[in-house]
Fold this sequence. Notes:
By secondary structure, the protein is α+β, with helices and mostly antiparallel strands. It has two helices and four strands; from the N terminus they run ββααββ.
Amino acid sequence: MYEVTVKTGFSAAHQLRYYDGKYENLHGHNWTAIVTVETKELDKIGLGVDFVILKKNVGDILSRLDYKNINEVPPFDSENPSAENISRWLFGELATLMNSDNARLKRVEIKEFDDCGAAYLDRKSV
């Protein structure tokens, strides 16, 4: 079994609805996304998943949030744009592109700061 991981980022603002504190106010982050795909086998040139393709797919999805107020972007116009919910959303969007007989999206972590974030993961294996 192999794991392939990419790390990328985006900049966006959000506010946490019903949060009793300063983070209920609109504020921004330089977010980090760390994505891991698990593969059973390597292809003929020794790759499990091409980093370039994985990073492009992650970037294409995250471009919907980049330099936006996430609270105005579906589904976060009605769902709280927490790191937990964003990681689950990215996982769902990316799984449809990456999952195959050989590869399965395993984990998506979204970090608001270097020292804190949340991850959504799949406990199944390929």
